[in-house]
Amino acid sequence: MAGYNKFKGFLVERGIRQQEIADLLGMNRTRVNLILNGQQGKDFKVHEVNKICEYLNISADKYFFNQKVSI
């Protein structure tokens, strides 16, 4: 995963801070930042994505999963 640019853009547009996401998930802001930027092989777990999407009322497919398929 190369980070979550689309989701980061959503957070900025809505004025949602990374700390709010960290608090929601019970992790520190630094870890959320590493995940959002695709650093050190970090990624959200499926249950964390589900929790974020439910909290923000957004689609996981739109912000977290790349649906492009090579043929």
UniProtKB/TrEMBL annotation:
Please name the taxonomic classification of the source: Bacteria, Bacillati, Bacillota, Bacilli, Bacillales
Q: What is this protein called?
A: HTH cro/C1-type domain-containing protein
According to the UniProt entry, the coiled-coil residues are: none
Q: State the species of origin.
A: Bacillus gobiensis
Per its UniProt record, what Gene3D superfamilies does this chain match?
A: lambda repressor-like DNA-binding domains (1.10.260.40)
The molecular function GO annotations come to:
DNA binding
> Cross-referenced Pfam families, in alphabetical order?
HTH_3
Q: Which domain of life is it from?
A: Bacteria
**Locate the HTH cro/C1-type domain: which residues?**
13-63
Q: Which InterPro entries match?
A: Cro/C1-type_HTH (IPR001387), Lambda_DNA-bd_dom_sf (IPR010982)
UniProt cross-references to CDD domains, sorted A to Z: HTH_XRE
